[in-house]
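Annex B.
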Amino acid sequence: MLRSLTKQFLFCLLLLCCLGLRFDGRAQTASPVAIQVDLTKDKGPVRPIWAWFGYDEPNYTYMKDGQKLLTEISKLSRVPVFVRAHSLLVTGDGTAALKWGSTNAYTEDAQGKPVYNWTIVDKIFDTYIERGMKPIAQIGFMPEALSSKPQPYRHYWKPGDNYNDIYTGWAYPPKDYTKFASLVYEWVKHSIARYGKQEVESWYWELWNEPNIGYWKGTTEEYIKLYDYTADAVKRALPTAKIGGPEVTGPNWDVSEKFFRSFLDHVVNGKNYVTGKVGTPLDFITFHAKGAPKLVDGIVQMNMGTQLRDIDKGFEIVASYPTLKKLPIIIGESDPEGCAACSEDLHPQNAYRNGTMYSSYTAASFARKHDLASARGVNLLGAVTWAFEFEDQAWFRGFRDLATNGVDKPVLNVFRMFGMMQGKRVDVAQNLAYDYRKVREQSVRGEPDINAFAAKDEKEATVMVWNYHDDNKLVAPSSVAVQIAGVPGKRVLLQHYRIDQQFSNSYEVWKAMGSPQKPTAEQIATLEKAGQLQLLTSPEWITVKDGSVSLPFSLPRQGVSLLKISWE
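Beta-xylosidase: predicted C-alpha cells.
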C-alpha cells in the first residue's frame, strides 16, 4: 500500500512539472498567519462587482454547454448577473468559431435600404433573460453593408495564428453614420417591444470594444463621432436608457490614457456631432485591465501588479474629472491576461487556467479592486471576468474559461463563494504581508499573500481566505488562524468551504482518471460533481467566547477557503 501511494505521489509530481507547477518541499513558517476580522467595523455594502461575465463568441450563448454554464452562473448569485458579448451586430449566418460571432442583424436590399433581422440577437438575449440575467448590450461591431472597408470581412482565426488577423471589415467606421444610428435606434426600440421598458432600463448599452487597439480601425475622433451618434440614438429610443464607454484597454499605457482622456474631455466639453451642443450623454464609464503571466525557469509566474496598476490608473483618470467622478465604473474586462482563446498547448504561460492558481488569483485580485476604488473615491459597479466556455474543444485544453465540456473548473467555485457573501463589508486587519498598495507596486514575489475579505449580514458572517503567490510552485501548506470579533450570541454554526488540489477541483479528478479525452458517462458525472463547491469538513457548532471565535486551519498554496458562520 505504501509503495503504491509513493508511486502515485511521484506520478503527481511529474504531472505538475509538465504543467508548469513545481513542488518546493521547504516547510513554511511554523507560526500561523493571524487574520483578524472585526464584524463591528462596517466598511460599507458588499458590492457584487464579481457578478459580471463576458466572452468573444456570442453564438456559444445558446449552444448546449453555453446554456448549461449560464444556468450555473445565474444560480451562484443572489443578484442578477450581467453578461457582455462581442459581435452582436456582425454580419453572418450565426456559425460559432473562436474569436468570431455573428447575428446578421443588419443587411441591405438591392436598393441599399436597411433590412433588420433580430432573430439571433433575440436568441442570445432570451437565453440571458430566461435565467434572470441581464445583458450589457454591446453596440458593435460594424455590419458588412455599413463598413467603410468591408473586405475582407469573415476571418478564420485559430490558436497559433497571428492575432492581428482577426481585425477585418467589422472593425472599421461606418460609411454612413446616420444609417448606423438608425440601426441602434431600431435595436433599442425592438428590445423595448420584446422585453418591456422597465427591463431594458436595467441594461447597460455600450459602444464597441477596445477602440484604442485593433478592434477599431478608425481614429479617436471617429470613435467619438460614432459615440455621439450612438448615444443620441439610444436616448431617442429610450431616454432613460444607460449608455456608456469607451471600453479602452490598458489605461496605464500612454496611448490608452490619451484616448481615454480625449473621450472624457469630449463628454465634458466637446461639441456634439449630432446636436451641436456641448457634451454628450454618459451614464457609466468603462475600461479594461489585464495581468501579464510568463514562464520563468519553466514555471508560470503571474503578474497581478500589472493588472492592479491598470485598474488604479483607470480610477485615477476618472477621478480627475469632478463631474464624472461619481459615475458608475464597469471594468469591462478584468483578467490575469489578455487572450481567452489562446490555449495552453500553444501558450504555456497560460497553464494557470485549469487549476487552483486561477481561483486564488481571482479571490485575491477582486478583494483589491474594492480597496483601489475606495482609495480613489470612485464608484466601482462591476468587474467583468472575460471567461466563458469554448464549445466542442478538447477537455481542459487551457482556454481562459469557467467550464470545459460542461464541467465546471475550480475558478467558478470562487464566484460561488463570492455569491455567498452578503450584507456589509467588514474590517480585516491590514498588518499582513501584503495590502493592496504592495500588491499593486510589487505583485506577489516574496512571501505568499495570505489575506482575507469579510462580510456580515443579519444572521451570518463570511470570510474568504486565500493563499496566493505569483509563482506556481506547490509548497507545504500554511497555518492560518482566523479570529472573528464582534460575533453575537453564544454559539455559531461553521461551514468551511474549500478550493484546493483535493476539493472543488474537477481538473485534479480528471488527471487522476488518466486525462481522458473521451470520458464515459460515469466519468463525466464524477467530474461534474467534482466541479461543484465542496465543504472541507462537516458543519459544526463553535462556542463564542467574549464575542469572538477562533478558527485555525491549514491552507495549501493557491488554495481558497470560505468560512461561513451563522447564528440564530
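Confidence is low (pLDDT under 50) at residues 1-29. The radius of gyration is 24 Å. Further annotation is deferred to the next reporting cycle.
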